[in-house]
Amino acid sequence: MNTDGMAVVVNNLEKRFGSFLAVDRVSFEVPKGQIFGFLGPNGAGKSTTIRMLTGILAPTGGSGTVAGFDVRTQAEKIKANIGYMSQKFSLYEDLTVEENIDFYAGIYRIPREKRKERKEWVIEMAGLKEHRRSRTAILSGGWKQRLSLGCAILHEPPIIFLDEPTAGVDPVSRRQFWDLIYSLSSRGVTIFVTTHYMDEAEYCDRIALIYRGELIAIGSPEELKTKYMRDDVLEVASDRPQDAMIELDGLSGVKEVALFGKGLHVVGETGAAERLAGAIRVHLEGRGFSVSRLEQIVPSLEDVFVSLIEARDRAGKAQSEVRV
């Protein structure tokens, strides 16, 4: 792999826990200054991968570098050159906002003459001026999130790892948090973020999709929708979407059907959208369903991910049947 201009380079990285393969030979690169999203359901291997890259877990196999340091032999140097924010916000609840920042300034060994300047920068960046003397325990999830990010970047690391940073945070706070991420990225900081929120993945420059420890796709949001989703997608609005989904599952021409909000997304073969739409309307209305909308749409990242997961599950099932 070409490592020039790369913040993270991973080659066949693997992690086993006994007989369980948590991360299965993943390979990717993250250019400096990029917002890189690691997307997948819970238990897919996202957090395990990020812990190997941050020097917390030792890999079982493969290789990788973070900020130019080897993930196998230079874990301590990696830790000194990154920021890491876990999904549980590693803050001390009994300390105030300022006291938490002071504590992390000591952990990161920021020179005393620079600590005040860095603390004020974090408080300003995170919008915490009115909360600087508040005990952390009384802060809302959104404010704790901002404080946690501020503590993670006190030492001005070139790379920040964010592990499910917006889990359990309200939508407004999530949006504001992403504004902070954009601001950091504009300064050249590399952001590596894990998430299972599909809408958040749209904010990333590039996304890697991981499922059951395997990397199943990688590219920009637009590339994923065009390169990996060649099938047509129809949106169906019906009075009984859950029942309608059951009715459409197995209908000729329907590859996949899934609930999406209050409606359905139906996946069919490329170029057959008009014919499939007619068949769906006839099938549902013939069984007493009211269809208020039925139209072809641009696939969402969720459509892409569901399609890739189901294709991977089908391939795995076929392999199992061959072995039997």
How would you sum up this structure, described in words?
The chain has 324 residues and is an alpha/beta fold. It has 2 domains: 6-224, P-loop containing nucleotide triphosphate hydrolases (Rossmann fold), CATH 3.40.50.300; 230-298, Lrp/AsnC effector binding domain/regulation of amino acid metabolism (RAM) domain (Alpha-Beta Plaits), CATH 3.30.70.920. It is 38% helix and 28% strand. The chain has a 6-stranded mixed β-sheet, sandwiched between helices. A 4-stranded antiparallel β-sheet has the order 2-1-4-5. Strands 12-13-11-14 form a 4-stranded antiparallel β-sheet, with helices on both faces. Helix 3 (97-107) crosses helix 4. The protein is globular. The model has no long low-confidence stretch (mean pLDDT 88).
